[in-house]
Write a structure and sequence with these properties.
Length: 128
């Protein structure tokens, strides 16, 4: 099983460079981590864009549940991305106490070969 790591981009008034990551293998994991300056993922403003560029097959993304925090074992979550389509993951019920790992990251597992393209964004924190 292959794995890829993606660092969250923090939006700025001057613009932030987007560096998408590509995931191509079924059962590949994609780990999303904060930048060094951020030190934490801010689930209240975190949004992840996943694009399935395949024109022949959909992919399923599984987001594992935490076993460490206050709402541990609330449950994993899956998202299906149709062929040649994009989804935005975030918003209500997307929370650190449900999905954050002990290493302060979130981990998606992709089922289906894609390929998929991943981007992750969050608003800057007051201390940045």
């Amino acid at each position: 099983m292959a794995s890829t790591t993606l660092t969250v981009v923090t939006a700025t008034i001057g613009g932030a460079t987007i560096t998408a990551k590509t995931s191509v293998a079924s059962s590949e994991t994609l780990t999303i981590q904060p930048s060094t300056a951020q030190s934490l993922l801010d689930f209240s403003s975190l949004h992840i864009r996943v694009t399935n560029t395949s024109t022949t097959a959909s992919v399923t993304l599984s987001l594992g549940a935490t076993t460490e925090y206050s709402d541990s074992d609330v449950g994993a979550y899956t998202v299906t991305v149709a062929t040649d389509a994009s989804v935005i993951v975030g918003g209500h019920d997307f929370e650190g106490s449900r999905f954050l790992t002990t290493s302060k990251t979130i981990v998606f597992t992709q089922t289906g070969t894609g390929p998929t393209s991943w981007e992750a964004y969050q608003a800057p924190n007051a201390w940045e």
